[in-house]
Amino acid sequence: MLVLVAPGQGAQSPGFLAPWLEVPGVADHLNWWSAVAGLDLVHYGTEADADAIKDTAVAQPLLVASGLAAFGALGLAPEQLGAVAGHSVGEITAAAIAGTLSAESALAFVRQRGLAMAEAATQTATGMAAVLGGDPDEVAAALEKHGLTAANNNGGGQIVAAGTLEQLEAFKADPPAKAKVISLAVAGAFHTHHMTPGVTRLQKIAPGVPVADPRTAYVSNADGKTVDGGAEIVARLVSQVSNPVRWDLCMEALERLGATCVIEVPPAGTLTNLVKRNLKGVAHLALKTPADLDKARELIAEHTPQGA
Fold it and tell me: Which of 55, 84, 98, 284 allows an S-S link to 214, with CB 3.0 to 4.6 Å?
């Protein structure tokens, strides 16, 4: 069973979209989606520096556009997939791949999401830190002690803590035993109550978003459950802004559904590394550049009944 997954914010790097512009049709799509999002995606994906694309309001549309461009290059129909899943903003990419959102709706929605989260992040000095290793119970207790939220649970002992900068500094000075704490270069405490203003903003536009029911299994970050209603998917996209990402439960769901191959759309690498560590025996491919397309098509032919 073939699964496509889409990464979240932080996966982008300067110039990562440049090689994709050589694929027929990609530049045309990116130019059109730039008009939809009100953002020059080609510039940000090819010429902008790391600081420019770290901006939440820029990074999020860029991630969704790159994932959809690569999906288009694969020439797949949603029905050929066994499931889709995305990490954080990657859930919007996954919703479009599944057919719940059009590409235009996905880009319009993610632009508003990025702006809303960037604005919410300015209200309090907040941030995030990766917590690697340590006893899970001890890590949870330490987070609670310092008033932090486990904003991401990525499985395999990888937690991302989020809260105020003061809370994070206190946590780093008093870490759980055998755990490594690494500050992350992000603009705020995403997927926590600090993002509530962003949820409020998205709730105003969500009722007007055109939706369709997904044409393949859509696995949600909220709880790892598959969601078969388009309206519910959009509601979850809104609420997920201030709720933790349970990627660990998503991987459990993919295993339960019978995944045999996972392909990650660009900017790829983060999620396939997690799949490699946590889903033993499942084939995987990080679709980083067009040079990976031939390998992707081989895997598609092998892991879908009808091939590609």
Answer: 98
